[in-house]
# Entry
Amino acid sequence: MDTSNAYPNNKHLNVLVVIPAYNEQESIVSVVNDVVSAGYDYVVVNDGSTDETQSLCESHGFNVLNLPQNLGIGGCGQAGAKYGLKLSTRSSTATTLTSSSMATANTMPAAFPVSSS
# Structure
């Protein structure tokens, strides 16, 4: 997937946000849009959802890994980390932002200061 134009505010591209998602059809689009708007690279790890999470991610062209069954937060974290290793030329740090949490991408800059590169 070509994401070269997907990050209008790409100041945080050295941070990969792993977004575990299990049956998050109600919130996944807004969470990903918030992460992208804040300038972060991301991957949604669809954790065997039985709702429309997978089809929403695919129809919006999101970076998504679809796990064949629910593995829980640990499995999502491992899958996201492996994805991050493949992007090692772009991302040097990974963090997790749950798709149903009250935390948003806008609360993360304090933890991950703007890179000068």
Observations:
- The longest helix spans residues 72-86.
